[in-house]
Amino acid sequence: xxGGVVSVFSFxxxxxxxxxxxxxxxxxxxxxxxxxxxxxxDEINKYPWILPNMTLGYHIYDSCADPRKAVKSIIQILxxxxxxxxxxxxxxxxxxxxxxxxxxxxTFPIAQLLxxxxxxxxxxxxxxxxxxxxxxxxxxxxxxxxxxxxxxxxSYFLSxxxxxxxxxxxxxxxxxxxxIRTLTNFLTxxxxxxxxxxxxxxxxFKDGIERSSRKIKKSSAQIIxxxxxxxxxxxxxxxxxxxxxxxxFHLLKNPKDLxxxxxxxxxxxxxxxxxxxxxxxxxxxxxxxxxxxxxxxLGDYLLLFSQVNTLQMYLAVxxxxxALHNMDVSQGYQSTDQIHRNRHKVHKYxxxxxxxxxxxxxxxxxTERGDKESGYIINNPIIFGTKIVSWNRVGSYNLTFIDDAxxxxxxxxxxxxNAKNETPRSQCSESCLPGQKKVTSSSIHMCCYDCALCSxxxxxxxxxxxxxxxxxxxxxxxxxxxxxxxxxMEYLSYAEDILSIAFSCLSSFFCILTILIFVLFYYKRDTxxxxxxxxxxxxxxxxxxxxxxxCVFLFLGRPVDITCMLRQISAGILFSVSISSLLAKTIMVxxxxxxxxxxxxxxxxxxxxxxxxxxxxxxxxxxxxxxxxVTLSPPFQELDTHSxxxxxxxxxxxxxxxxxxxxxxxxxxxxxxSFIIAFxxxxxxxxxxxxxxxxxxxxxxxxxxxxxxxxxxxxxGKYMVAVEIFAIxxxxxxLLGCIFVTKCYIILFKPELNTRKHLLELKNTVxxx
Length: 769
Description:
This protein has 23 helices and 23 strands. By secondary structure, the chain is of the alpha/beta class. Among the domains are: 2-145 and 239-254 and 296-364, Response regulator (Rossmann fold, 3-Layer(aba) Sandwich); 255-295, no CATH class; 436-486, no CATH class; 498-683 and 722-731, Up-down Bundle (Rhopdopsin 7-helix transmembrane proteins), CATH 1.20.1070. The chain has a 5-stranded parallel β-sheet with strand order 2-1-3-4-5, with helices on both faces. A 4-stranded antiparallel β-sheet has the order 9-12-13-14. Strands 7-6-8 form a 3-stranded parallel β-sheet, sandwiched between helices. The model is unreliable at 12-21 (pLDDT under 50).
């Protein structure tokens, strides 16, 4: 036999209940739970393979949702027929387990009383988290999740719509205080503030709202958490047979069902046949009752109400029966007396029950806490006038995996109770737009805030962001600060940069000019002006200058590792060759002058060996430095994301500043030595003023590079490269102009000066001086 405690009647619906009635006014949605128990027991007894050697019965009392009445009902069931005797259990009453109750407030005293006796209890509605304590309630189970799960879903749902300031309306009892505290904690975790918490009777929340209307109107909260405007319910388990059972349920099939008669009296105005009940109803509601034929379709009303707790009642009976069956089979089909004596083992078999989930995978029916995990559905009541005419499913939440991804809501399907059917707004601050973030304000509520623009280099891509996100190094916020855009790549581009075009044209022009001069010198290589000061050095100088102009192209375009390595070492080596050539020329001017004196030992140094050696040795030192640089710490391409906010500089990292300045310093030493020697011999008489031209060329070269260094260090990005290119072009053009322009002029326009006769006259003039 199953002991059952259900909540069907109420104490508080009538304003002035008759003194001789303890419990009255049946609630149809609770009566539906009672019918589910009847249906489940009948179904179990119908199948011979479940508990084959016994028939399952029940002994049911109504708790009337009152703890005192619940305790009295349990004592009555334990006492058996007759008077209820506290602390007494009738051994003839073969109760092996209890179902119920619906409310946590009545389930508590039932569980405490049954804890004295080894009875298993399965509730179909109690959700208080205290039942999770298996030390206090080792044999209490529930066919639905606990309150924490509901609070978790509510808090997530509110945050989903951006409702950060809400009110709470709770029952006017101890449980209501606990619900307010617990729900507030969950809401606080989601940064949702509770502006007010009001309490009202369970039976009439509407009156509670009306009594507190002034406080509610003063609040900026537009959402009140009751179990609406939306409702959360467990995902229903389809049972078409039970639905048909409700649909076809009428009085002719249950002529002795007094509760049914009273419900028909209330819904259809039919006489119950009980004179006292009829008279009380007519006096209270100022109406008269008529006699009905017993075919009134109460089932239509039963199907209007949610199936959730009804199915939980059905599952509770099924689970208890399954546990009894498993225990019966495992112990060899015992008698009812034996099963009754082993009732303390039932909860172990319930813990071992397995149920298939939505995917068909078998899992334990009950969690370690004694409750049953289940999916939730979110219903939207469609209200016409003052009545709910239908429930629209607008979302669900899967509790198998507690994750935000398992929560979905079709917001566009929700019918809101306002004129424009707009989603209500319940915040104490305006939403922060994308590109802004929340900052703490001076309000008493933590969810009240001000909005501030994201800091430089940060974005927020959604409303009401708590923090801004920093853009990657290669990106920068757009104008509104809502998303990151790739920074513009800055370098001397051939296609887009006017500087690159100008440098390309200049480099090409001077390169062609140098080639023409080289060709001219080659064809006039036997003339005095070309032979006067070592024509081979002149050819080497022209080639190095020409390559210097060409190496400008290594500095243009997007740099890569190979161009980064070639640009510096090529410029360093070529300019070292050029300066070494001029140094060799300068030394030869000095030696040539000294060799003109009779019996001078300098005559032995007037050949080509000395200048060639100077050129080779001085150039080789720079080559060794450059090769060591490339080998030990080569330059490479890098992206500079810090110099500019909105663009990335594609540049060359020199690899090692020591090697870079060593190469540059050596070139400067060569230039300084060449300039000093050329300056000292500038007044020495020689053919075609070669020493003076070398002095001028080195003056230009040194001036350009000395001016370049501070300009190079004070700029960044592509303009740093532009400064170096300008220095290369200017110094190369200075060498070309100072050394070769006057010679070209004589060759082309004063050929009479480019003769052996004129050269002899110059020498005589020198000797005369």
